[in-house]
Design brief:
Structural class: alpha+beta
Radius of gyration: 19 Å
Strand content: 15-25%
Largest sheet: 2 strands, antiparallel
Helix content: 40-55%
Order of helices and strands: HHEEHEEH
Amino acid sequence: ALLAAVVQRGALPPGAVTAVNRAAADAPTVVQLEADELVVRYHASPPEAFLADVAASAISMVGGPSRDRLRQCGAPGCGRWFLASRPRQHWCSPACGNRARLARFHQRHRAA
């Protein structure tokens, strides 16, 4: 719901904001440096840590500087969320772009 609201340039649904904030807060993290690598340790069960990680990613996506590049793939049967690398990018991958163009081609030729 949060990602859809951003793509549609609408207001963020308050219930979704509350849920994602709660999920992120349910698994406190500690960031540490070990052997020259960043390590994130969760003080929660594995499912809570997973949900917190997903929630933190969603918060970063919705509230961060990449927000205006967020898109939902327009290819038939896909619908993945992605960050556009070009202003007019409509598909998450070249394969989805090919599938969308092929679907349009078949639709035009069936109508003719």
